[in-house]
Amino acid sequence: RAAPRSRLYSLNCVEWSLLPPVTKEMIAQAEQLMGRFQGDPSFAYEFAEINAEDAEKLIEGGKEFSIKEEVRLVATIEQIDRAVGIIPRGAFVKTPLGSVHENRNFEGLSFTEAKKLSSYFHFTEPVNLKNKTLLEKADLDPSTDFLDSLEHDIPQGSWTVQLEKGGTVVVLRSLLWLGLTFYHVPMTKQYGYIYFGNGEKNLDLPFML
Fewest C-beta atoms under 10 Å: which of 108, 109, 123, 126? Predict the structure, then answer.
């Protein structure tokens, strides 16, 4: 599930078109853009502000000072998945040989654990975990605690945890990517997330907390 996947878009929810594979260069270009999407995959965004060094690199590579909306779209999807694509602790396990598999014995988090941010992990290559000392890793289970926990996300307070349907469903919402909602039904295998937003990262979050 964490492997690269094909991504599609539609203008009418009937006909679907394939987006190009995302690259690091696409993500870097998309991060320079501000403002909402136009709804036109062929729309070209021009970089209003670009330093001389970046401009020279683009000229040397024979590239233009613009990118199409379909490129920005797939790059934004990748950013959202990396930042807020999450799973409950124990949903996946890592074997001693390093391979990761879906945990067939996972029966959901308990009601107590489901309300803690530390019980949820980013489903992507860990970053913070690699910076932990051996002493900090001593209390971690290498088979389940091999990903970055949400409790260490920066800025602190970028997630909200709420109980819905009489406390039977735990819902996490991202304040960094407004519109991202994750749900988990404790004591069951049911969990997932969906994003309904404008595609803009909430860069003002540190000043709002």
Answer: 126
